[in-house]
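Backbone shapes recur. Consider a single case.
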Amino acid sequence: MDYRKLSEFMNGIFIILNEAVANMGIETHLLFSQMAKAYKGKAKNLLAKDLEINITGSDVKSVAESFSEQIKKLGVCQRLNIVEATDEKLVVDIGECVFSQAGLILAKEEGKDYIPVCPMIAMLEAEIEEVTGKTLQIEKREFDLGHNSCIFSNTTLG
């Protein structure tokens, strides 16, 4: 399967996942936290071993920056900028992500206040929680069509 077909397939899966969650009435915050929890096990080990993803750091900012570097190096996002990273707030700009097409479709269908479940943000949440003990709750997500990016704003809790 070539990259374009794989990307279209994964975007379809992403839309299915988000619509299934919405149909069940599960709050997005709950799903993000459960995805982060699930990532910490088998998925993290698989990605670390097979894709050589190794996130380092000792606080929110350093973990977020390390995550950004690793994901960009992997190529699943062309841009993953950490706009702000403190113990109280994390703002992430994800651009040209493998899930951008699905994010755009969901934003158009669900409205600007809809926050789709983003595997990248769930992975980042897991890494930050593992190192700092802090959990994240997404407050909003903005889609910037001109830059094909999503900006996720989070508040660190706990």
In short: The mean pLDDT is 84.
